[in-house]
Amino acid sequence: MKPVEGLIFDLDGVLLDTAQHHYTAWRRLADELGISFLPKDNEKLKGLSRVESLERILSMGGLMLNNDTKLQLMERKNAWYIELIADMTSEDVLPGVRAFIESSRKAGLHIALGSSSNNATTILQRCNLETLFDAIIDGRHVTHTKPDPEVFLKGAAQMNLSPSQVAVFEDAQAGIEAALAGGFHAVGVGLPSNLPGAAWVIPGFVGLTLEGLHQALALQASG
Ligand code: B16
Ligand code: MG
Question: Does the predicted model carry a pTM greater than 0.90?
């Protein structure tokens, strides 16, 4: 296979450890509602939109609420989440991320963000990451969130690349499904057991090189 020409990065759980802050904020809400919400439940929520995440939590507790109440609950969760990320700086970018993106840019690859979050731009600015991206697609730009491929398809289109020319880095099962549905090379970030279907799973970005990525994807494509 030809080397990829573009990379799309998920935000929460890939560039930064914000996935744990989403969990903390949802857990606080679930506790208040008397709904049991454990890390294994959270794993299935990763990458889903805010409203879809709330719907899943409410259905876990068998709760039916009207739209106004749901909006209020989402606002409260987001306010707690914003408190949790308020002190984030460029120091919080996960190890190896910036170096890998910078070296990929130098090698001529196009770089995009593909996140479900409406807080993506705030976080990128705060952590001094925004200028690394040729295209930023987030929750505000899509009608259908992961596992629908829309966010990644829009990223590829803005980079003028087809999905087969692009690798997507994702920490969520919903994100891997979205990448595969769109025809992208799906690279998991995290534990292989949480990310079935990924072409390759890395524990993080420390030591990752473009050659290593190309070799892993070529091996997977050949076998
Ligand atoms: P917000 P990602 C996703 O971001 C998170 O994984 C998910 O937990 C969150 O519910 C979703 O963004 C919406 O985020 O409430 O900030 O708009 O992983 O796609 O970067
Ligand atoms: Mg994520």
Answer: yes
